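Problem 3 from the worked examples.
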Amino acid sequence: MVQSTRRGIDRRFAIRLAAGSLLIACLLSPSIALGNASAAKPSSVTAEPMAGDRQASSTQRLVWARFHPEDETVGLITADIDGRHEHELTHPPSGVSDTDPVRSPDGRRVIFNRETADGVQIAIARVDGTGGVTIVDTGCREPCADDIDPGWTPDGRHLTFTRVIGPFDPITHDAASALLYTAREDGSHLRRLSEPGNDGSAEDNHARYAPDGKYLVFDRTRRINGTVHTAIFRMTPTGTRVQQLTAWALDATRASVSPARRGPTAGLVVFETNGVVPEAQADVATVPAACRSLDLCSAGIRLVTSNTGTSKSSFMASWSPNGQRLAYTETPGGGRAADIWTARYDGRHAFQVTRSPLSDFFPAWSF
């Protein structure tokens, strides 16, 4: 069984970012877990936020989370892709955290976790700031503890999320179940996505569909010889043809499929390494979703960032609307705040978006 509830984790993570004791900011090299993965060549920092992307739109915006230590809140920020014209999108009350925004397929809204002292709610806000925050009632009732980690189906008509179901183990705090579900925004048409038979033996999180809706990728967490590990999997929307894309040793998390339907990033899955490893350095990497075996998938992994030998960590990546660039969080080390960066999918033309004294993380790229 896995320690399944995410209640409060993102808020504590934000506090660690601000305090300079980031969980993954130490210098443990990911090279062993990556095996023969190709490292990204160090790229010069560009002064152009969309360098190398001729199809970029000047109307695109970024949404991300910012930690405010004075009242221990995490609110969502929106700005132009170069970091200008920044304003607050959500204004959570003291002690509440809005985290992990995911853009809707039409780019007009984001769905996110709203974490309170009592649990996690799924919330939606418009990127233009109108209409306030809508709390989604997905029908989580006992023994359901929380519905967390929301996303969208490609048509934007349904939500995806992980449903955490009790009871919880009194020693390990493992939930009885934490698996993927989908429902409409009003909570109707609830349907399980995860395949049958793995209740209590694994946790499925972070469901993200391919743009054509034919498959989705997700993170699976499992205890192996007493140690928690994560890997990226793909499957059909009916929970069949489940395939592992990354080795357990890589501890890959936060998988997301490129929205591109053609070109070099079509079918490419971005993820972060060492996502659950304490005091481990993280990198952003990609793996092709169409690889036929775990060995072929491992051979196809490419690093977007290459932080080995530095104090940096890079993680929480999301795709630009056309799949040509990535937005991600980077911590420079030394107790300094985390910032939002963007780069091409191959790691070139990196651009620093934020330079706030506060920590910025969980970027999402909107239209």
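Problem 4, a separate protein:
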Amino acid sequence: MAAVGKSSLLLRFSENDFRHDLTSTIGVDFLIRTMDIDGERVKVSIWDTAGQERYRTITEAYYRNAHGILLIYDITSKSSFDNVRGWIRSIEEHSTKGVQVTLVGNKADMDAHRVISKEQGQQLASEFRVPFFETSAKADINVDDIFVCIARESKRLYDETHSLNAEKPTCVNLQGATVPAQVISSCCA
């Protein structure tokens, strides 16, 4: 997903800024931002990965422990939209089960140059059962919304998983328990 505006969205989200002269991401960029999600402070780590094919193996390594993935295409580029299915397959193959994916059609301010309709984006999102947004880093349309959406859902899934784990003890209290003598004698023999 090269040149779809991933870094521009991140710059808008992190610094409320937009620059026409951003260069392509080489490898990976990283940002931490603290957000208020449903009245709770949440620290969000965001990895901006390169979209060029030559960086694909690097990008796939970052899927593994991700709680959420923004899958971004450019509404003025048919090829970026056509590549979404391949990226979804890659995410399914390399990410943790249950990762929150959100489909984002970027550059919504360029409606006069649009080649992918909003309905096409919604249909694809519906097919993969993921949330869908159209955004514009330049015009600041829905930028915070995509990050809040994915952070909220990722937090919900994290809380759900950890509350289930809290109910299942990870150790057993053996204080006062007796161990048969034959087990003790053969333990390290």
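Solution to problem 4. The domain at 6-186 is CATH 3.40.50.300 (Rossmann fold). The radius of gyration is 22 Å.
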